[in-house]
Amino acid sequence: MPATGPLATLTDIVTSPTEAFRSLREKPSILFPLLLILTANVIIVLCYYNTVDFPWLVDTLVQTAIDRTGGDMSQEAQEQIRKAMGSMSPSVMAAINALSIAIILTLVLCLSALYFLIISAVTSDGFKFKNWLSLVSWCSVPTVFASLAALVNILISSNGQLSPYRMNPLSFTSLLSLDAGGQNTLASTLSNVDITTLWALVLLVMGYRQWTGRDLAGSAAIVLAPSVIIITCILLIA
User: What is the pTM of this model?
Assistant: First the structure.
């Protein structure tokens, strides 16, 4: 009899995804993967602000804001940004960012599940919101590896001057040595995408295909459509 429970599913989602999807279809679970992902990201934020050279970070973020306006930012505006950031301690910044990322990640997962629920309503496949939230949460678990890589990167940073855009060594910005701090919109977008993001998307395609019985092309089109639309809009608006 195969092992069951969140730890067994955690192992299966990495080593035997089809088995994990079969188990989740019968008994969807949400809390464990959601807490795992949120905890990993919150730890990264707290560790980063606990070790970073804070005055250097403020200067870096101000310079990034200047670069993204093409240098067209008044000295007064620069000082306002610098003053606003400088008025907060690293611990306050860490708390704000940790809370923000926890809320954003939860919303993204819920919106993804809602998207699949709408598709289910159209196709009448019978899956509910809980099913889809379980699937998208578990398929996002590989992103924890990116958090671990970022943690190692933070801990080995000797002088505390690690750019937030270089924090994740698995991001395409880091892997391709792109400057995400300037006006390069593509580089800025890629700073939020890493190889574990692609892993998660592949798992989601596999899971959707296994659950619904659709062909690979149709499953990929449905799963990837939101990401393609969002990235396209970002590039067109910038």
Answer: 0.89
